[in-house]
Amino acid sequence: MLKINNLTVKVLDKYILKNFNLEINEGEIHVLMGQNGAGKSTISKVIMRDDTYEVISGSIKYNDENLIDMSTTDIARKGIFLITQNPPEISGVTNAEMLRTSLTDMGKNDMNILEFNRKMTKICDKLNISNSFIHRDINYNMSGGEKKKNELLHMWMLEPKCIILDEIDSGLDVDSLKLVANSILDYYQEFKPSILIITHQKSLVDILKPNYVHILADKKIVKTGDYNLALSIFENGFRSSIMSESEANE
Asked: Between the CA of residue 135 and those of 112, 117, 224, what are the distances in Å?
């Protein structure tokens, strides 16, 4: 579904990624881990075509379409959805206005206003947020936890098929993290999207039980495993988890 092939990226003449490769099939959950500054968040921004990042070579394909030459809007229309560490505040545009416009733009808005509000209310209840969020400006004057739940409100309404979560755990207390993680799990169980999670948080990984875990180092993925690789990282750190058994025994 999403295939990144030999991607090399730089910012201000500094290489951030070199020959980066990743393939996520439909319905798979992947976790990308690595030390601070390794370039993990770069992946999400390049996929969504943040023009701060210069793609030197390689391709990013989604359902065999190359995203490199697409705009962020066109990529979102394809059903790719990103939640960042610190979602932007947009004053003057309410959640309801944005979502109705987005659904219409994607050809999905077949609900009348009552059905639309009823669905949003149901999701607000599921996320344990006030129904007032329906008419609040997008992320405006919200706490970190409220912003993440607000973004999940968008996710449930837009029903994307490919989701990128860039340290969604950032700024969440224990209870909020559990609610957010379980909401993502509920969404996955209902819609079976492809998910790429960038995180350091063990509880998030424990709840979502990824199919694959990748370690990013030296500007590329250096090791891939299953859920047990994440457990090794949490217990032993990145260096020990990257080393082969023979190296570890030396």
From this structure: 17, 10, 43
DSSP labels, 87-100? PPPEEEEEHHHHHH
Q: Which CATH architecture has domain 2-249?
A: 3-Layer(aba) Sandwich (3.40)
Please count the other Cβ atoms lying within 10 Å of the Cβ belonging to residue 221.
19
pLDDT digits (tens, 9 = 90+) for 58-83: 999 999 999 998 999 999 999 999 99
C-alpha distances in Å from residue 119, one per residue of 17, 43, 110, 175, 190: 41, 32, 12, 24, 15
Beta strands in 141-245 (DSSP E): 162-166, 194-198, 212-217, 220-225
131 DSSP assignment: G
Which burial class, exposed, middle or buried, applies to 111 when counting CB atoms under 10 A from its CB (0-12, 13-18, 19+)? middle
| Ramachandran sector of residue 104 (left: φ over 0; alpha: ψ -120 to 50; beta: rest) | alpha
Whole-prediction pTM value?
Answer: 0.92
